[in-house]
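Appendix C reproduces, verbatim, an entry submitted by the partner laboratory led by Prof. M.T., so that reviewers can inspect both the input and the predicted structure.
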Amino acid sequence: MSAMLLSLYLKLNVLLVVAWVLWWLIKRTAVWLGFEASQSQQLNLARFLFLASLLLLPLTAVLDVVLPLWKTGIAGIMAGREIIVTAAMEQALPQDGLGALSLEFLFLTVLLTVVLLQGHRVWRQLSQLRQIVSNATPWKKIHGIELLVSSAITTPFSTRALGGKQIVLPSDLLTSPRNLQLAVKHELQHVRNHDLEWVILLEAVKALCSWNPAVWLWHNEFDCLQEFACDEVLVNERQVSREGYGNCLLEVASNASGSALLAASNMVPKFSFWQDNQYQLKRRILMLMKTGRKYSTLKSICYGLLIGSGLLVEAGVVAGAEQGEQLQPNLLPLVRISPKYPPEALAEKREAWVQLQFSIDETGAVYEPKVIDHCVRLQIEPANVCEQSDLFDAASVAALSKWKYAAEERRDVQTILRYQLSE
């Protein structure tokens, strides 16, 4: 079970990396070809690619259950590798398998520690968010969305991480009715764009895979696109004054202090990953000066075609990973007991290979080991010389019966033990 969960977790991180690389290439290709879509369309397409990438993971898990032959085709027949045993191997191999187990245990321990630290960070920041919201003064409600005023913040934000949907406004905005109205419109647009649900999803993924740079790149990308899309809709569809809205952004940004709140859509977020926030704010102001784009539907279709191609690439990556598991699955033993090189074989300087078949139960233990073929020859004889002898059979079966694999039931697994004399 732990091996399966670890495999799914690693696949998740690979999919996040592949999805980010694909999105970066799609955006650069669109700019190069001259059909860059609007910010709102880019946001929707990025969300589709991200969500589709995440859904590929449970899809493969379901297929593994529905179509067990995916795992047990070639993988159920061959263990994947020959095991070479030399006369000196008894001292070279760990007899109790602690090396393999300790490495997996160390990896899982580090991973669990990172996840727990991220969980503590989320809990601490949620407590901070809850304190701000609970201490804020209720103002009014708009379509079931609670508007609050707080003196503990300097920039407006909206959230639904605490259950309901809340928009919290800094008390300083009350002195500027124009900016207050624009800030409310901005945060209401975040609610309409379903940004509040997406920031919660991104925070969950970030807490689970915080060590993966692709997660932080995705978080930065969505922060940018959500703000750009919100600005674009307000000035193009809601008929908000471009100049007035730009001045509002500048004034709010000049008052901003501290870090962005967890699972909240901030009007001026700290979303810059490799560039300063002034650069991102400049991009937003310059975007306000642009008028509506022509052929937006056609450009969106071109984006969609690129993303469709990207999803096919991702599906190919997952299928390749599944095929790799079939051809060389997790059938390397976690605990491998070295066979005893038969003393009479040492005395006669004989080498051999022994092909064995066995099954693995739900605990990973080996049962029903048996020899299905063998070949013995003198060391000085050519490799194609073969003598049918059971000289190495007993040692092979005795050692194999003590091996330990990942806890996953398999039948009719085969492997080869190759006995060689060192020079």
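The chain is about 55% helix and 15% strand. Additional entries are available on request from the coordinating office.
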